[in-house]
Amino acid sequence: MTHQVTIRNTGHRFPAQDGSTILQSALDAGLVLPYGCRDGACGSCKGKLVDGRIDYGRYSEKALTAQERAQGYALFCQAKPLSDVAIEAREVRKAGDIQVRKLPARVQKLERAADDAMIVYLKLPANERLMYLPGQYIDILLKDGTRRSFSMANAPHDDEFVQLHVRHVPGGAFTDHVFQTMKERDILRLEGPFGTFFLRDESDKPIVLVASGTGFAPIKALIEAAFKKGVKRPMRLYWGARRPKDLYLNGLAERWVAEHSGFEYVPVISDALPEDNWSGRTGFVHRAVMDDLSDLSGHQVYACGVPIMVDSARRDFIQNCRLPENEFFADSFTTAADKAR
Ligand SMILES: Cc1cc2nc3c(=O)[nH]c(=O)nc-3n(C[C@H](O)[C@H](O)[C@H](O)COP(=O)(O)OP(=O)(O)OC[C@H]3O[C@@H](n4cnc5c(N)ncnc54)[C@H](O)[C@@H]3O)c2cc1C
Ligand code: FES
Q1: Which ligand has its closest atom nearest to the C-alpha of 339?
Q2: Contact, 217 vs 165, CB < 8 A?
Q3: What is the pTM of this model?
Q4: pLDDT tens by residue, 66-86
Q5: Ligand 1: which atom is nearest the Cα of residue 195?
Q6: Half-sphere exposure (Cβ direction) of 143: Cα atoms closer than 13 Å
Q7: Structural domains of the chain, with CATH
Q8: Nearest ligand 1 atom to alpha carbon 36
Q9: Can you list the alpha helix ranges (DSSP code H) found in 147-284?
Q10: What is the pLDDT of residues 247-273, one digit of tens each?
Q11: Hey, is 322 helix, strand or coil?
């Protein structure tokens, strides 16, 4: 059975087959709604059900609270229509001609960049290219049928290798493998691109980029693509890590400052040891942004990394720094632990 979904605020309509989520049905129809994890863990796909009935699916209470659900909100990556429905959602843009594809890839190089960060270079088959918007991610398809998401760290124009920055999650099936047993020339299967974390280039507002740990990966792609395109908007990057050695591409960020006027870089360290001789900014990375920019009403913010940072930044920037809700863009690097209900 097919149900009709109407996006009330834009007037678009699309069909949803029985058992298909609202997000997947929208994507199938060439309409992009905001989303991140596609797993009920991050909350990026939250929108309002204004009419009709849905199966809310399985999700984390952190992504959709009972109060939000009572107010009419749902997670469209999980919600399945049980009747014709009307929703309110932000539309991102037409999916255009970027096709989601499955491809094999060979591990070309493994570069240990920090104690818990590995840069993985993947080589696609000859004559194959992965089209994507800088900031998007791919899924690595594992043999047991599960998948793990990683953001492309290379901008699309720099496409000799697909570059991933993988943080080691101890006890994690895939990242344990990356750090312990993966070898150069291993073959992986991947699918992508996915996600709606990319530069909104229709705006001319100054850009604040906030990364924690390997959240630097999609932000690197976004910045390098903006430089290549000649984007003139002021950009300020805040990169947070526990210790200075965890800022695994600090030299690259410093080079961007030297080479691009209008680009600023603020490294922020939360747990420096005396031997680090750290004299720079300290504390939580999103707090450093708030100390410098108490009024974000004229900015756009792009944040990526661990869920606690992304959630705190969203909440505090909107509540305390006047950032308009629709000017905050993020990918929250959720793991199975965040999805556990
Ligand atoms: C859109 C997106 C983009 C991402 N991009 C990046 C990126 O560029 N770089 C990056 O480093 N990370 C990224 N991530 C996060 C990355 O996908 C995860 O860190 C990765 O999936 C962990 O995989 P794993 O197999 O090692 O861990 P998993 O096996 O998935 O386990 C993760 C953790 O959860 C625990 N766990 C497993 N099952 C359960 C359970 N049932 N209950 C409770 N705990 C459980 C494990 O012990 C472990 O600590 C991204 C995530 C998303 C959603
Ligand atoms: S995309 Fe729906 S909760 Fe993350």
Answers
A1: 1
A2: yes
A3: 0.94
A4: 999 999 999 999 999 999 999
A5: 1
A6: 3
A7: 2-88 (3.10.20.30), 101-194 (2.40.30.10), 207-339 (3.40.50.80)
A8: 1
A9: 173-180, 216-229, 250-259
A10: 999 999 999 999 999 999 999 999 999
A11: coil
